[in-house]
Amino acid sequence: MDILSLFVLIPVLVIIALVFTKGLHQARLVAMAGSLVQLGMAINLLFAYIKESAVNENVFVFTRDIVWFEQLNIHYNIGVDGISVALILLTAIVVLAGVFISWKTYDLPKEFFISLLVLATGVYGFFISIDLFTMFLFYEVAVIPMYLLIGIWGSGPKEYSAMKLTLMLMGASALLMVGILGIYFNSNADGGALTFNILEISKVNIPVEAQKLFFPLTFIGFAVLGALFPFHTWSPDGHASAPTAVSMLHAGVLMKLGGYGVFRIAMFLLPEGAMEWSWFFISLSATGVIYGAFAAIRQTDLKYINAYSSVSHLGMVLFALLMLNKTAWNGAILQSLSHGFMTALFFALIGMIYSRTHTRDITKLGGLLKVIPFISVIYVIAGLASLGLPGFSGFVAEMNIFVGAFQHEAMFYRVATIISVSAIVVTAVYILRVVGIMLMGPVKNEEFLKLPQATWYETTGIMLLLIPMVGIGIAPYWLSEMILKSLQPFIQGLL
């Protein structure tokens, strides 16, 4: 068994083991053990990749190719570069943290953890695939469990939120399928055979007119999952109704599939289409960056504040990808990782606060720093990372994005960059507003004086997310080097 296929096999084996568990205690132990194994595999993959890439000139390593359906040239074709390795490690950490944060899930715990791991299986499979059909298959496997996770274990208008999320993502998937088929049927433009292999298609000169037609379909198909304005509306409602661990995986991991798909498929395979349409989607992305930040200011529900913050931060990822240069792309990947850890940490903390106070309305909270100091201090740290304070991952990512974006001499790009940069100031406003209202001042409710402190499993989940967020901010160079090496073939495709 190759090192990458284990990322699909192990979660499936854990799911089978969960089927035979009885009760909450057994279910969470099996889920924890399985998630720990996956994290160990991700760390091992990271070191194996560093070792292999030092002696292997190929960008993708640990490749494996098995024919699935010969008539259509569909293969189980897998491999990883530095970008996918980093995102796999992000996924493993967030999944394990989500298991710890869900330690006290009492309603159908076995089914809950099974659904989480099905989602994780799809995400792992998506990140290791270098075949368009296989990638799309895993993409759907990752998205579908969200309906059940929100519709069954959610709160508030959960049926509406689950249905809205599912319909919008399925609509985006329909556009994406048309885009993928368009790429497939133009993959023999140089006289070869039709193929779904991303690396083979990248060497084909797809007609410019076909690129102009299929790039927007492919871009929107993926970018809807990345909260592209104005198709972002499913995200805040979905976050607000989802249980804590689902919000963590939804924002921390699942939404990264959108940016990764845009980068790996739309940008890489349709570069002429990307250059033709970049101005239009830059306008939408920059609008999303500033709109998400201003929308967050107006919210009083903690989950909605973080959800709109995610719209802003992920809009920055799409904005950076559309700048079509190495520095901005490096920032986009770092921003995806930073946002994954940061927003998962935010949702974990929000879940802890809600489970104690039974409200997410910041106007009903106050003085929590005196009552639950550890949770409150971590919330402040996550907020500082969100607004891009030096020493945290957000600063490293945003600096790369804005420096790369400002390298364009055209006035349009620089104006769009200035608009996006201004979102940092707005982010500081809503972060400091929440901290001031919720954590500072007198305790508004006497019942809050008896709130329990963070438990061992909550503290473990917090530290799993906090350590890499700070680590990337302090020592980002090894990660940037790994990413920059993987960017080389993409840059060459644009020259």
TrEMBL record:
<feature type="domain" description="NADH:quinone oxidoreductase/Mrp antiporter transmembrane">
    <location>
        <begin position="130"/>
        <end position="418"/>
    </location>
</feature>
<feature type="transmembrane region" description="Helical">
    <location>
        <begin position="253"/>
        <end position="271"/>
    </location>
</feature>
<feature type="transmembrane region" description="Helical">
    <location>
        <begin position="112"/>
        <end position="130"/>
    </location>
</feature>
<feature type="transmembrane region" description="Helical">
    <location>
        <begin position="136"/>
        <end position="153"/>
    </location>
</feature>
<feature type="transmembrane region" description="Helical">
    <location>
        <begin position="367"/>
        <end position="392"/>
    </location>
</feature>
<protein>
    <submittedName>
        <fullName>NADH-quinone oxidoreductase subunit M</fullName>
        <ecNumber>1.6.5.-</ecNumber>
    </submittedName>
</protein>
<keyword id="KW-1133">Transmembrane helix</keyword>
<feature type="transmembrane region" description="Helical">
    <location>
        <begin position="336"/>
        <end position="355"/>
    </location>
</feature>
<feature type="transmembrane region" description="Helical">
    <location>
        <begin position="6"/>
        <end position="24"/>
    </location>
</feature>
<feature type="transmembrane region" description="Helical">
    <location>
        <begin position="29"/>
        <end position="50"/>
    </location>
</feature>
<feature type="transmembrane region" description="Helical">
    <location>
        <begin position="304"/>
        <end position="324"/>
    </location>
</feature>
<feature type="transmembrane region" description="Helical">
    <location>
        <begin position="277"/>
        <end position="297"/>
    </location>
</feature>
<dbReference type="GO" id="GO:0016491">
    <property type="term" value="F:oxidoreductase activity"/>
</dbReference>
<feature type="transmembrane region" description="Helical">
    <location>
        <begin position="456"/>
        <end position="479"/>
    </location>
</feature>
<keyword id="KW-0560">Oxidoreductase</keyword>
<feature type="transmembrane region" description="Helical">
    <location>
        <begin position="213"/>
        <end position="232"/>
    </location>
</feature>
<feature type="transmembrane region" description="Helical">
    <location>
        <begin position="78"/>
        <end position="100"/>
    </location>
</feature>
<keyword id="KW-0812">Transmembrane</keyword>
<dbReference type="InterPro" id="IPR001750">
    <property type="entry name" value="ND/Mrp_TM"/>
</dbReference>
<dbReference type="Pfam" id="PF00361">
    <property type="entry name" value="Proton_antipo_M"/>
</dbReference>
<dbReference type="InterPro" id="IPR010227">
    <property type="entry name" value="NADH_Q_OxRdtase_chainM/4"/>
</dbReference>
<feature type="transmembrane region" description="Helical">
    <location>
        <begin position="412"/>
        <end position="435"/>
    </location>
</feature>
<feature type="transmembrane region" description="Helical">
    <location>
        <begin position="165"/>
        <end position="185"/>
    </location>
</feature>
<keyword id="KW-0472">Membrane</keyword>
<dbReference type="InterPro" id="IPR003918">
    <property type="entry name" value="NADH_UbQ_OxRdtase"/>
</dbReference>
<comment type="similarity">
    <text>Belongs to the complex I subunit 4 family.</text>
</comment>
